[in-house]
Design a protein that fits this description.
- With 430 residues, the protein is an alpha/beta fold.
- The protein has four domains: 3-125, N-utilizing Substance Protein B Homolog, Chain A (Orthogonal Bundle), CATH 1.10.940; 138-171, no CATH class; 178-233, 2-Layer Sandwich (Alpha-Beta Plaits); 236-425, 3-Layer(aba) Sandwich (Rossmann fold), CATH 3.40.50.
- Helices cover 46% and strands 16% of the residues.
- The chain contains 18 helices and eleven strands.
- It has helices at residues 3-18, 22-33, 38-50, 52-60, 72-87, 93-107, 112-125, 138-146, 150-157, 162-172, 189-198, 224-227, 236-245, 262-270, 284-297, 348-351, 353-365, 387-396; strands at residues 178-182, 202-205, 212-216, 231-233, 252-256, 276-281, 302-306, 320-326, 368-378, 400-408, 418-425.
- Helix 15 links the parallel strand 6 (276-281) and strand 7.
- Helix 3 (38-50) crosses helix 5 (72-87), helix 5 packs parallel to helix 7 (112-125) and helix 6 (93-107) packs antiparallel against helix 7.
- The longest helix has 16 residues, at 3-18.
Length: 430
């Protein structure tokens, strides 16, 4: 059996049955199985996740009684086989069918004939299978074509024009680059580029942040350079948050909702290990990851603290030079990296996110000293969670004024979708 497809199968089944995050499940299975081609595994895993609704639409027409009649194991194998046939030109048709049947024999006892028959039937009928009629049901057409839950499309169409939404969905299905933030506490940019290129990686400068690099090649996070703390994987949109916060050496920074710590450590690096960052999160176990990352990167100015961000910590009132609120959100700006987000159900928790975000922003704003800076950020593109939250906050808190606001989009900027708003508190004289 092909170890690469077996690794992809284990990852996809974990995402499907355990609701695991795709990036964590993939890294875990790659570490355990040691596939011969990590790039193939990643392409197959993320391709199936990105196109899940499209694949299921096709399978519904090929499987007796539809996809609902299938167990998760055989459905996962069929999705993998169909994705290879429909989207991976590098995979010969016979190999896609043969390896899918081999997976079925191992993991779907008694279903190898089903898998073989369905995939061969697709090859016969692939030119006659069409998408839903756009004129009859545009939302369903878009949902199947781009593989997004219908409610997401309906939500975006409340704020954006159709052409914009289509480009946004299309960009969300593209493979993002591996972007890293180099750690200038340990290495200079030119030296890191040279080290990586000597190992066969292709390296280019980022387009937005000066300390970002785009890297092509497999096994980057297995190198001693990563283990030594010379860099951290981070999209430029996320790195930009710490840049717009503009921390100074010696500052006291409060970073709420800090885990897993990517922005926290970026802030610390910009401060050259001076001052102090109080990084809080509601769960202590999540803060352990912040502590581990700080040790890897050689950072010593972060103090972690378990705290519910919807409440104000009286010990920090008007103490902070700068406060970062990287609020919990729907995550719809990072579907390129976590495509499973596209299939979340519309729940009451999602509906009430803006209320929670406003509560966190309001409570955390109490930490900002006169003339200090407050930054609100999310990794979503929903105005309900972004512009509307800021508008409501500023209306309630006239002591703050907006200074700068940015919305980054994969379809425009080539980054993850991110919203960043910088606000300034009035001086005590005002």
């Amino acid at each position: 059996m092909d170890i690469n497809r077996k690794t992809a199968y284990s990852t996809l089944l974990s995402v499907e049955t355990k609701k695991a995050y795709s990036n964590l499940a993939l890294n875990h299975n790659v570490k355990i199985s040691k596939p011969t081609s990590q790039s193939f595994v990643r392409e197959l895993v993320y391709g199936v996740l990105e196109r899940k609704l499209t694949l299921d639409y096709y399978l519904d027409q090929l499987v007796d009684h539809g996809v609902k009649s299938l167990k998760k194991q055989e459905l996962t194998v069929l999705r993998m086989g169909l994705y290879q046939l429909a989207y991976m030109d590098s995979v010969p048709e016979y190999a896609a069918v043969y390896e899918s049947v081999a997976l079925a024999k191992k993991f779907c006892r008694g279903k190898s004939g089903l898998v073989n028959g369905v995939l061969r039937e697709y090859l016969k009928r692939k030119d006659s299978i069409t998408l839903p009629d756009r004129e009859k049901d545009e939302i369903r057409y878009l949902s199947i074509k781009y593989s997004y839950a219908p409610w997401i499309i309906e939500k975006w169409l409340e704020f954006y024009k159709m052409e914009f939404v289509e480009k946004l969905m299309e960009a969300g299905n593209q493979t993002p680059p591996m972007t890293i933030r180099y750690n200038w506490l340990k290495v200079v940019k030119g030296d890191l580029i040279e080290l990586l290129e000597e190992r066969g990686f292709e390296v280019e400068d980022g387009k937005i942040c000066t300390n970002s690099l785009n890297v092509k090649g497999s096994g980057l996070l297995e190198t001693e350079f990563y283990k030594m703390g010379l860099f951290t994987p981070q999209d430029e949109s996320s790195t930009l948050v710490s840049e717009m916060l503009d921390p100074k050496q010696g500052d006291l920074i409060v970073d709420v909702c800090a885990a897993p710590g990517g922005k926290t450590t970026a802030i610390a690096e910009r401060m050259n290990n001076t001052g102090m960052i109080i990084a809080s999160d509601i769960y202590r176990r999540r803060l352990d990851q912040v502590d581990r990352e700080a040790r890897r990167l050689g950072i010593v100015n972060i103090e972690t603290k378990a705290w519910d961000a919807t409440r104000t910590d009286p010990q920090l009132v008007k103490k902070a030079d700068r406060v970062l609120v990287d609020a919990p959100c729907s995550g719809l700006g990072v579907v390129r990296r976590k495509p499973e987000i596209k299939y979340r159900e519309k729940t009451s928790d999602l509906e009430h996110l803006p209320e929670k975000q406003l509560a966190i922003l309001s409570a955390s704003s109490e930490y900002v000293k006169p003339s200090g800076t407050l930054v609100y950020s999310t990794c979503t593109v929903n105005p309900d969670e972004n512009e509307k939250v800021i508008k409501a906050f500023l209306k309630r808190n006239p002591v703050f004024r907006q200074e700068e606001r940015k919305l980054l989009l994969p379809s425009v900027n080539g980054t993850d979708g991110f919203f960043i708003c910088v606000m300034k508190r009035a001086s005590s004289m005002e």
